[in-house]
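@here heads up, posting the sequence + SMILES for the pyridoxal-5'-phosphate run so it's all in one place. Ping me if the SMILES looks off, I pulled it from an old spreadsheet.
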Amino acid sequence: MNEKQKLLSHLPSVDEILKSGQGMAWLDTYPRRYVIQGIREGIDRKRKDIFEGLSADLSAEVMMADIENIIARLSSFSLIPLINATGVVIHTNLGRSTLSEQVLENIIRVSGSYSNLEYDIDKGKRGKRYAHIKRILREVTGAEDALIVNNNAAAVLLCLNTLSKGKEVIVSRGELVEIGGSFRMPDVMSASGAVLHEVGTTNKTHLFDYEKAINENTSLILKIHKSNYRIKGFTDEVSIDDLVRLGRKHYIPVMFDLGSGCLIDLKPFGVHDEPSVKEIVKTGVDLTSFSGDKLLGGPQGGVIIGNREYIEKLKKNPMTRALRIDKLTLAGFEATLMEYIDEEKAIENIPTLRMLLQRPEVIKKRANKIANKLRREIKDANIKVMTDSSRAGGGSLPEEDLPTYVVSIKAAEPSVNELEERLRMGKPPIITRIKEDSLIIDARTIRDRDIEILVKGVKAAILKDAAS
Ligand SMILES: *Cc1c(COP(=O)(O)O)cnc(C)c1O
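bot reply: prediction finished. Complex structure tokens:
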């Protein structure tokens, strides 16, 4: 027997490991299927290493640790919570808006039980799914009627398919935006069956451009919020008021895809180019759509508000059935929208609004708290609190640089790139950014209850070398 054969013959069998004390302990914690798969993979890896002469390290400990890692990975969820230290509040990659405890409680209460989702309790017969949010949406937006579908992309698709299939929709060239890679306005329009009639130029579109484009096949005038970009300099766009007037004159409906759709007045907070949904509704626009999980701060969804006549048409489209939201979303929306009955409460209780509108002193205090705790734990790193700016994200308020406070960390070891990676791979992952050789933790998006976990994570990432 040569050396390799000898090593191979010493490898334990799946059964031996399974019946060992360690194997039994794994079975107590993890699903049997993954324990067996993990043991099998662990042994296979070892066998391959021996064949390739890579490792003669047969120590049971090393192999068992390896197996445990495989089992733990197989048994863990893929979709997990993490800490967003980027300062981007509506971070599309990190789940956009987070929900408050009250909203989550309502989701649990409604979905953990049977409910009157489509049941009219007063009449004792079939009821309407959307009735639950109609009253509250009317109240907080001022619109006549409302509907919620899967997301704002679905809302636009549904409106165009209902009003404009095989007919023309007039849109300004300056508003044919792409949002988050997978949502291109022209593509959604063609998917809906509508024919795009572009008017104006990239930087300027005038009312007469729209008016000239109107013909007997025109079904809709669509205005789109430019969301994630702005054209500066020699520019002109037509206001929604003017478009509504034009639509009235020619008996053509007008729709506004608002993108974010903010339900509160942001002017007291210094934001002047983001009218509230209420202000938009007051212009008399026929249909307005916006996301549920951007500035509104609720679950994913596409809110459509407008005249009863048009909302009724939308509801009759079979596509509405395919795009309908479930009870979890509905419960989340109702609880979120209820907060808006009192704007001050909304700003306090809706995490997205709270993070966006918190006063810089509050962020500074949190940044100092984090920095002080870190300094206590980590001696040889340069830890500073600095001013910086964070972004709203999600294509919302692109013009706004939100003044913030960040904790900047520069350690001798590891390198800033290594540190960023270790934090990202940690449990829970901590997502940060790098600025000029320093690691940046923006205190804006750190929840107070996450501070301890954050500090522990950073400490472990920096002191990892020292420990091993
Ligand atoms: C974000 C956005 C959308 C897409 O909304 P989702 O809710 O992400 O589907 C559509 N239109 C505009 C203008 C947007 O900003």
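MO: The domain at 101-349 is CATH 3.40.640.10 (Aspartate Aminotransferase; domain 2).
MO: One more: The mean pLDDT is 93.
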